[in-house]
Amino acid sequence: AQTVTQSQPEMSVQEAETVTLSCTYDTSESNYYLFWYKQPPSRQMILVIRQEAYKQQNATENRFSVNFQKAAKSFSLKISDSQLGDTAMYFCAFVTGTASKLTFGTGTRLQVTL
Amino acid sequence: DAGITQSPRHKVTETGTPVTLRCHQTENHRYMYWYRQDPGHGLRLIHYSYGVKDTDKGEVSDGYSVSRSKTEDFLLTLESATSSQTSVYFCAISDDRLPQGGEQFFGPGTRLTVL
After folding, report:
1. Residue numbers in B near A104 (CB within 8 A)
2. pLDDT score recorded for residue A99
């Protein structure tokens, strides 16, 4: 079975600081894609960053970056210079293949404070 | 933003009544999905479609059926709603012809309450 584990149900960070959200996954597939989705109070699911498993280079999108450790099946999200607008629920997810079912973690609720 | 709409956005219904949720896309994406979101569970796949009239079950399909008669529409039906189906339902789309493989685009969600 394919699983995603987010061990931090809630986290808090001060504005302008850096925070890292953890994610581990389990799959027997060798080719897959990993994602971090953000869900603000509006409930809209927003893609933050994606990583192809065959790429060794960690993905980066502005203030968001990942630490992808394939052997350890770990995919953490680092948010630098945290902003109040980063307050949201963050979900780690992966999919095996280009058109398949996403498997989600249970989410980490991030609160950015002044 | 990907052109995905869901209707209704909110619905309150009574146990035992049938309910149909609609997902409509304007992106001509091949794949469509229905997820439900519950506290402590993240999003879980109910059903998905890989083409017109081609559908398959997800991990929480009991009590739900789907239909896709056109590329742009994917319907989720609760034949006889139960309180355990109170949830937020998300539709998503994807297409393996896109360069950003594997990415799914989500609709705004439907909050369903079954009394």
Report:
1. 42-44
2. 53
Separation in Å, CA of A113 to nearest CA in chain B: 23
Tell me whether residues A102 and B41 touch, CB distance under 8 A: no
Q: Which residues of A touch B (CB under 8 A)?
A: 4, 32-33, 35, 37, 43-45, 47, 50, 52, 91, 93, 95, 97-102, 104-107
Q: What is the number of H-type helices and E-type strands within chain B?
A: 0, 11
Q: Which two tokens stand for residue A26?
A: 């389990």
The number of CA neighbours under 13 Å toward the Cβ of B101 is 14
- Encoding tokens for residue A93? 């997810």
By the 8 A CB rule, do B46 and B58 touch? yes
Nearest CA distance, B79 vs chain A (angstrom): 24
Are B107 and B7 spatial neighbours (Cβ–Cβ below 8 Å)?
no
Return phi, psi of residue A92, to 5°: -95, 140
Chain A residue at shortest CA distance from B97:
A98
Q: What is the pLDDT of residues A82-99, one digit of tens each?
A: 999 999 999 999 887 655
As a whole number, the mean pLDDT across chain B is 92
Residue B46 CA to residue B58 CA, distance in Å, equals 5
pLDDT at B80 over 80: yes
CB contact under 8 A, A44 and B108: yes
